[in-house]
Amino acid sequence: MSKFRETLADVSWKLLLVTLPITSFPLLSKLFSGTMVAPLSFLPMVLLVLVVVLPEFLKRKAFPRQFQPLYIFFLIAVFSLALAFLRELPSFRTIPVWRNALEGLVTLLFGFGFYLVTIYCLRDQKQIRDALRWINLGGAIIILVVGLQYVTYKLSGTFPQVLISFQGIISSSGRLFDGRATGLAYEPSWLAHQLNILYIPIWFGFTTQNETIYHRKLFGRIPIEALLLTGGITSMFLSFSRIGWLTIIAVSMFLFFRLANSKINRLLERKEKETGSKHNAWRSIFSKFILWLLLLLIMLLLIFSAGQIMRRVDPRMEQLFNLKVLQQYGIMGWAGRLGFAERIIYWQSAFNAFVDHPFFGTGLGVAGYYFPETTPSFGYRLPEILSALLYDNFIPNAKNLWVRLLSETGIVGFSFFIAWVVEHWRDAKDIEKRKHSGLFKAMGVAGQLLIIALIVEGFSLDTFGLPYYWIGFGLIVASWRAKSWNQASKSKHKSA
Questions:
Q1: Does the residue 225 lie in any domain?
Q2: Which residues pair with 24 in a beta bridge?
Q3: Domain-embedded: residue 260
Q4: Spatial distance between the Cα atoms of 352 and 341, rounded to a whole number of angstroms
Q5: For the whole model, what pTM was predicted?
């Protein structure tokens, strides 16, 4: 690589990482016909694809092994679209089907770009550490902006004009939400999404392993990532995103289970050494069962506590524990009082489209055209759903990544996407298990937490265009490859 290209790639990569918090840049949003999903990091990503990914692909004539399920998923998505144009599609809106389909393919290619750029820009431990420093800088900016938003709102009951103007510059929505932190994102739920999917898993991974990418720890003992983790969880909490809260509970419970499971295994091993006899398998199973039961109770307690807090700070959640409403109006009526019945209707509608087209789905970006045919009857009682059916000028989406995959690519496409996720889970476990530096162990834990967060957050957002889980998965692959190369170089050194 020439010196100029190397410098251009280095600057572009750092710009990509530090601009990750900006999810919907106004100029890009206008360029893409007013779409909400327009991350500022898209611009350096495209440049990096041209100067790093394409030359690397032309040189090796192959993508990484982990990309293979995703490549097959893309072919299935294209095939499902071809089938869609052979069908007689419902007449819904004046928006042409090809436009929505093209948007679906383009956003998927955006995700591919972020994923491959991350893999090819990171080749060794040093580059991974440098990347994490820039990611941390972006996360620190998020925490700072959230702090300014929350403190100024609490002190004056409104946002100062300078913050409102700033939000208009960096976000296509230009909105700040009363009593909720938005950060640099389009809306509070997107703030929770970016924190839960990328930043918090990384900070959790390094904190739990007592590892840091910096030369020093706070007071010589505390990783700086622990300070960032505290600020990140607080910022996510201040977004008052319901799915965000559930995600952090799920991630925390996974970490707690890992710790408790490790403690039980050590206790059984110690008793085995003391008694000189192998421990009973049934005793181990019973101990694990008690552990799972305890964890379930703790999780329910945490969810209940989170619900009680939400009831006090979010008017939408006031009827959360009102059993009379649940008994009188049923689950959907109760969900309507809590402000998420509309979201369930979108999920049900997309799932009904999957039931009608189970193998290859309706086609990427096409499921929304079936919305009038697949909407459950309860949806006609909800103003938002009626507006989506009768007045709005956009095609409804699933608002759920997993249901979207089923409805638009069928069980075949869904299976390959899940296979891609499982592949990264295995790689993350592999990175953590073997004896490596603290960096690899921390990234192995972070990778597992990222995937758990994606599973939960996938019930809230369905876009392929936001970069966070793509970059997170790219970090898993980059760490796995760097670990493998590190092992190979040590083996050669020993044989020499």
A1: yes
A2: 38
A3: no
A4: 16
A5: 0.90
